[in-house]
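Notes from the 1:1 (GR / supervisor)

We went over the backlog. Supervisor wanted to see one worked example end to end before approving the batch request, so GR pasted a single chain during the call. The sequence is below; no edits were made to it. Supervisor asked that the structure be written out right there so they could see what the output format looks like.
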Amino acid sequence: MDAFSYLSVLLSIIIGLGLTQILTAVGRIIRHRDRVRVDWLPLLWAGVLLVIYVQVWWSMFGLRNVRDWTFASFLIVLAQAGTLYLMAALVLPEQIDEQHVDLAAYYDEHRRWFFGFLLVTLVVSVIKDVIITGALPRPLNLGFHVFLAAASVSAIFVRRRRYQEVDGLTSAAAFASYVGLLFARLG
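Structure output shown during the call:
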């Protein structure tokens, strides 16, 4: 077994747990729909996060070519998976009790942490490239990171609902473009 095959097992577990967290939360909302006041914005972010998970899984295949793994390089890749998991833990409610859950209120209560972890994930992603390849990501890749980081920072500080909606839709479109332009083929 080569080093990446060994190291990717732990990454796969964390990514799998994050995907499970999101999908379980969506199932919970569907099951308890009579007690949930549905709001499209946190569901949009849950969908974006699912795509982010798939994209990260897809892009990590490129790490199979790394031959000189160090603890620092593995730790930074692990940190990215960890911050993604924390986003999954925050995007939708963990429990739906006997009382009603308002997804809009839940989103507003947790958005700062969610976007804080998104920002950390983006920063870690850039640092990962620097540690593993010795260089910043290519300009288009870096540009998307900067755009999504700016959108995350603004979502942390601007509470207005209309702004959050525009930020969510713009970020979703930007991420879809990012995946389409940079990760269409497994490489």
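Supervisor's comment: The longest strand covers residues 36-37.
Batch request approved.
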